[in-house]
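To fix ideas, we now present one chain and its tokenised fold:
***
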Amino acid sequence: MTEKGDWDREFDLRWADTAEQKEPSARARMLAARWKENPPDPVPFRADPTPVGSRRGSWVSTAVVFGCVAAVIVLLGWAQMRSGY
């Protein structure tokens, strides 16, 4: 057989896809063996997100951000006034 024919025969994906038996991947075999002894806990399809803390926390962080912005504005104004324009 020619070299090209060997190459086509070796990497014929259509032939491989039509195989009746397919060997599972190494990861699939490892997980199957692990889960046989210790099955995983069921997980809902879409788990609820972690509960959000009180709404007060968001107001505190907002106040801190606005306070920092105000402090920077005051500091820049003071520095500009001190430099004499």
The first helix runs from residue 3 to 10. The two ends are 90 Å apart (CA to CA).
